[in-house]
């Protein structure tokens, strides 16, 4: 049907059809990037999960291969679930993943490439000694025990791996050790655990430094100034803690522990889950991939014949304050840019809508810098908003007047604005600093029924002395709107299904609805070419 073709993304990762979820085992090996993913070969709802497999030389154009791991043995017959790749010392890659066994217990299995000189590593072999790790031992629950991380070597030369689990009813990243990568024993304490939440899915553990090209291999010596990050997936979003990896106690020690998990930092404040990162040894950066689900109905997904995409791979690094992560689309994405429009020195007064013309508004990359003229009129920040930012977005969108913002972008808008998605900022004063609210408001995104259309939002700090402008970058891709605020301090991924996309002809605007004028020293926008994502050339 017409629906299925128009909402399909042109440069966000997805297979030709069927359901996908979590990114699995991303790695760079011998000149090739590998992306695996949770995949249902039989339909567009979750089930029958195997590992789909695609390869690329640029992270943008992908060649689709046959599934790499299928449900063939007693230890994965009910599902080949999430896992990670590790490059062993001799350079050989391996994958450890969760299998749902004959009893639907969650166990950890290993696979090896059949032929390391096959550039695509098409075939993966399951040794007879699977499962390697079983859900047995103190405090464990056999159906809450999954999603092993990439392995790393500790100071004693032994391999370590962390596994997401429920431990005595709470959440933990369990720690296992091995000398030979085959025999694993549970360490008597977890890498980290928390009684602020239940089971964490898809833990990710990695080291970071400030700077885009300062990615670290988790097994390498930890340089001065490095921090460790533990990412966990829960409450429909990916949260993280920055801290240190204490080698003596072999534990992760967060810099700050917040009892209320609503306050934990997020990788993305929108529709983004089960992310996994890897060290890209080609470019010396760390890259993170996340899954973005559909927000239409299951019957829509059945009608479309596909569901799920991956967000654009993002370079991820540590802010110079060592407190938060920054993310930016990998620069390879810029190779898809074609027509460019640019405007300098715009001024947006209250109520102004500046139409961005001359590009393909369905497939675009937009970068805008906003400069504030009178920050004094910024309203006071209320920390209680942090407990429910989406609620604050809904209220701030309509009823809070007389301050700085909202200003931002309106995308995928119909001629009469009946349908539109807005991505915007508002500025609040908080003692010595400013807090910026960033929202991606989907409430008017479509006239179609049965869609999930929240107003996503998050806050980030803004240092007026250091930063003159607040930047917004948004990647528009038919049913995907992926935004980066403050140079990558805050990301919001979203899915929208405007009727206007089917009919063609959507509009895009920069806008300001705040009372105080904002300047736009620079606005650039590009049409984006269609990438070759898992489809034949032509
Ligand atoms: N998806 C996988 C699990 C994981 C969950 C199953 C997270 O391994 O915990 O498809 O989305």
TrEMBL record:
Q: Which UniProt keywords apply?
A: Glycoprotein, Glycosidase, Hydrolase, Signal
Entry superkingdom: Eukaryota
**What's one GO MF term for it?**
hydrolase activity, hydrolyzing O-glycosyl compounds
Record bears the keyword Hydrolase: yes
Q: Which GO terms describe its biological process?
A: carbohydrate metabolic process
Q: Which family does it belong to?
A: Belongs to the glycosyl hydrolase 32 family.
Give the protein name, as stated in the record: Beta-fructofuranosidase, insoluble isoenzyme 4
